[in-house]
Design goal:
This protein is an alpha/beta fold. It has helices at residues 14-24, 55-63, 75-83, 98-117, 131-152, and strands at 4-7, 28-32, 44-48, 69-71, 87-89, 95-96.
């Protein structure tokens, strides 16, 4: 059965994901270290994991599998989920695949090294997350979840 897993700590599209999951009748699991209110939606469950770094990531990576969809911006988690057979989508609607995760991880590691070598390199964040990003996410999630459901039969 297809399940939608959300890396819920700092996820800006939980409400949008819930709407798509509800429309497609797909169970959705919000995974976090706490601090989220449970949804009244019977399709949405909340999994609170132990405190500690990457505990939510570990749980998602160990639980997801073929036919599932994971929403995360964490590239190492995305890589583990892809290896487990799940489809992976970022908050901006971009699909991560076996073909593009390697270069993304390499770039992430390179930028981490640059920031570590130059403490004055501010790095700055990206552009603000806006309405267009939410729209792209909803369209992409609808497409990816529908594909997963068709593949599951």
């Amino acid at each position: 059965m297809t399940t939608l897993y959300i890396d819920a700590d700092a996820c800006p599209v939980k409400a949008e994901a819930e709407r798509v999951a509800t429309r497609l009748k797909v169970p959705m699991v919000l995974v976090c270290n706490g601090g989220l209110r449970p949804s009244q939606n019977p399709l949405v469950s909340l999994k609170i994991v132990a405190e500690g770094p990457d505990e939510a990531d570990k749980w998602i990576a160990e639980t997801c599998g073929a036919g599932d969809v994971v929403v995360t911006s964490d590239l190492p988690l995305a890589d583990r989920c892809l290896k487990a057979g799940a489809a992976v989508l970022q908050h901006n609607g971009e699909t991560l695949t076996e073909a593009n995760i390697g270069p993304r991880l390499a770039t992430r590691d390179l930028m981490q090294d640059i920031r570590a070598a130059n403490p004055f390199h501010a790095g700055g964040g990206g552009a603000a997350f806006g309405k267009a990003d939410r729209s792209r996410f909803v369209q992409a999630l609808d497409r990816v979840l529908s594909q997963a459901l068709r593949a599951a039969g």
